[in-house]
Structures are given as C-alpha cells and as structure tokens.
C-alpha cells in the first residue's frame, strides 16, 4: 500500500525531522511511504462533548468543550510547520475548534494545501473561509451516519445546519476530500461512499436520508475518495486516477458503483487490488474476504 503519513506536532519530533536528514532517507528507502505534514489537534470529539463550541452544548448547558491546543499556541505552531515546508493538518470538530484552525491557517498564509480534518461542526459564517483561505475540508462521511442519532441533541437545530455540511462546503467553493478515520470507523471506502450518497445507515434509516440536502452525488463521492484525496496529499501527478503516466494502482470490484442501486453501495466487494501494476490482493472464488489471498 501507499502510506501518506503525518508527524506528531510536538516540537521535539519536528526538530528531529527537520534537522536529522531522515526525510531524504525515507524517500529513498521506502518509496511507498511519504511524510507530508504535521497533525495538530484543535479540540476533542462531539460524542464525548469534548469538541470546542462557541456556545455551550444544547444538552449540557454548562459545558462548551475544551480546546486541546490553546489557540495562540496552535497559531504559532502551525506557522512554524509552514516555515519548515510541511503541510498542516488540523483536527477540528466543534465550531470553536474549526474557527481556531481557520485563524491559525490564515495567520500562516501562504500555506500549501492546508487541511482541516473532520470540519464537523462549522459556524455558518465560517464556511466561506474554507474556499477563501484554500483550506481542504477533509471529511469522513460515515461520521455523519454514526452521529446522526444524537448530533442535533448536542448542538441544537440552528448549529446543526453547519454540521456535516458537505454540500454547503462544496457550494461555497471549498475543496472537500474524503477518508475513513480508521480505526474510529471502518476503513472500507464503500461504506463512506454509501454514507456520502445516501446519508443513511446500512439499515436504510432514515428514509430519504438524514439532512439529505447535504448529500453528495456518486460522482462527487467517488472523486472525493480518489482523485481529490490524492490532490490533498500532493500526489495528483502519481495516483488518484487511471491515466497515462500515473501509477497502476487500482481495485477491481464486483459491481459498478455508478449504476448499482444506492442502497447496495456499501456492499461493494473488492475482488482484486493492484499496486504498481502488481496484484497484491485477490479474493478467492466463492470465499469471504477473510479467506482471500493477500500477497
């Protein structure tokens, strides 16, 4: 597999990385591993009420969450990473956390392809800033279908309009890319594609999808997991599409995700995985995935 890795944001690690010369060793010795940037944490998670909000939780009026990294420190550390030539990727769940991440990126401009991981609850007035600042909204569609049972209880009917707001972000001109957030969620990309297209759980609930106005089309969802994700990692000249001059990385699946019934997208099964033109995984005929062959 190809691995795009992000360093921890502690100063000791970053000083070692920028002064040891190890970056060049990694590039030469492990062509399938690339260190692209640094992962920061602006806040915690919504489910545990640790995500930093601009106003208290609707179901916990005395609590507005807590920043994991002080906003001033986040701004200074992001600026240093940018000076070191690394890509900042900032975990931000709550609207206060996302605002702190956007402010840190704005202060560090010019920044090459800054990412906000999750961009889960964003104040409506901050959504246009993603496009204005060139910030990638790196989202995980299955978070919406995992959280939809209780998310509005946490933030209320007004703030939920800016939560898991993929269509609002796209319509505002933001670059939206998709991933899984494994091991929090399954790494299966077809679970994410299904969630993006239907905004339903795998039982088909709720009918019509949760906040269906925020759904993606199939074409958008597939691009977000492939072409656009490659761009966000700085690898658009190598992978992300099947085209002349790019690496022969692809999968063969058992159904066409462009034409299969939407309710069946999550059931899509990989029959073969090819990396650099070499088959590295093959599903055995009539077997389950657990009985398949990995080479």
Briefly summarize what is shown.
With 295 residues, this protein is of the alpha/beta class. The protein has helices at residues 11-20, 22-29, 71-83, 95-108, 127-133, 141-147, 151-159, 166-171, 189-198, 218-225, 227-232, and strands at 3-8, 33-41, 87-92, 115-118, 136-139, 175-178, 250-253, 270-275, 278-282, 293-294.
Structural features, described:
The chain has helices at residues 11-20, 22-29, 71-83, 95-108, 127-133, 141-147, 151-159, 166-171, 189-198, 218-225, 227-232, and strands at 3-8, 33-41, 87-92, 115-118, 136-139, 175-178, 250-253, 270-275, 278-282, 293-294. Helix 3 (71-83) packs parallel to helix 4 (95-108) and helix 6 crosses helix 9 (189-198). The chain is globular and about 55 Å long. The protein is built from eleven helices and ten strands. Strands 1-2-3-4-5-6 form a six-stranded parallel sheet. Strands 7-8-9-10 form a four-stranded antiparallel sheet, with no helix packed on it. Helices cover 33% and strands 17% of the residues. By secondary structure, the protein is of the alpha/beta class.
Topology:
Elements: E1 3-8, H1 11-20, H2 22-29, E2 33-41, H3 71-83, E3 87-92, H4 95-108, E4 115-118, H5 127-133, E5 136-139, H6 141-147, H7 151-159, H8 166-171, E6 175-178, H9 189-198, H10 218-225, H11 227-232, E7 250-253, E8 270-275, E9 278-282, E10 293-294
Helix pairs in contact: 3-4, 6-9, 9-10
């Amino acid at each position: 597999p190809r691995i795009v890795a992000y360093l921890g944001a502690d100063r000791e690690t970053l000083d070692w990385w920028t002064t040891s010369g190890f970056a060049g060793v990694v590039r030469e010795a492990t062509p399938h591993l690339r260190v692209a940037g640094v992962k920061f944490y602006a806040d915690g998670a919504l489910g545990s009420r640790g995500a930093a909000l601009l106003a208290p939780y609707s179901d916990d009026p005395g609590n507005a969450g807590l920043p994991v990294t002080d906003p001033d420190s986040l701004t200074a550390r992001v600026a240093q990473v940018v000076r070191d030539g690394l890509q900042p990727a900032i975990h931000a769940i709550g609207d206060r956390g996302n605002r702190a991440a956007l402010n840190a990126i704005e202060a560090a401009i010019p920044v090459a392809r800054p990412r906000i991981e999750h961009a889960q609850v964003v104040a409506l007035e901050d959504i246009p800033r993603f496009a204005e600042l060139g910030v990638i909204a790196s989202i995980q569609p299955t978070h919406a279908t995992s959280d939809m049972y209780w998310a509005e209880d946490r933030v209320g009917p007004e703030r939920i309009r800016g939560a898991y707001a993929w269509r609002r972000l796209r319509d505002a001109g933001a670059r939206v890319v998709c991933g899984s957030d494994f091991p929090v969620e399954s790494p299966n990309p077809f679970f994410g594609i299904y969630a993006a297209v239907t905004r339903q759980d795998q039982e088909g609930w709720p009918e019509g999808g949760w906040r269906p106005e925020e759904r993606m089309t199939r074409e958008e969802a597939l691009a977000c997991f492939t072409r656009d994700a490659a761009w966000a990692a700085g690898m658009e000249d190598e992978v992300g599409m099947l085209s002349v001059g790019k690496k022969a990385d692809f999968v063969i699946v058992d159904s066409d995700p462009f034409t299969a019934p939407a309710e069946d997208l999550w059931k899509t099964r990989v029959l073969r995985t090819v990396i650099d033109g070499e088959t590295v995984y093959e599903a055995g005929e009539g077997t389950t995935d657990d009985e398949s062959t990995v080479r």
